[in-house]
Write the structure tokens for this entry.
Amino acid sequence: MSETEKQAVAEAEEEKQQEQEAETPGGEEEKAEPSKEELQLLLEDARNKADDHWNRVLRLQAELENLRKRSQRELENAHKYALEKFVQELLPVKDSLEMGLAAVNEGDGESAAKLREGMELTLKMLQAALEKFGVKEIDPVGQPFDPERHQAMSTVESDDAEPNTVVTVMQKGYLLNDRLIRPAMVVVAK
């Protein structure tokens, strides 16, 4: 008999004795030994209660572990994707800088060279900042069209590219920690 079972039997006997004392008029103490059958019933009852309590403890431990894991996963996602709105605001700035660089490349003169150099440095700094926070660029020229990461703006006939291949990128796409923030806007070969 285990310690738990012994303790349960002892508690049951004590409860039984207290009930008998309460029933005895005038405070007379009659010590009647419980029969073997009564002890067996008390033992079974105690075992059932112990099993029930053990099962409850196991269920509560499992629920706590699941709650802990879910909270940890949600916290990791909150940290990982907290900058999503920030990145969405910065992307148009990067696009404008790239368009400015393209316009400067078409112009001539010394002021244009200085402007071009400044914009290139600014663009490099912005690109480094975005990469620091887990932003990756999607520039799929020459790759097969992927509807999960690309948005087809049009299709064109092309002898140089295989069908369903990205020919031109109109606007680059971006990933934040491998989650799509903005699909690349592309022209696809027929």
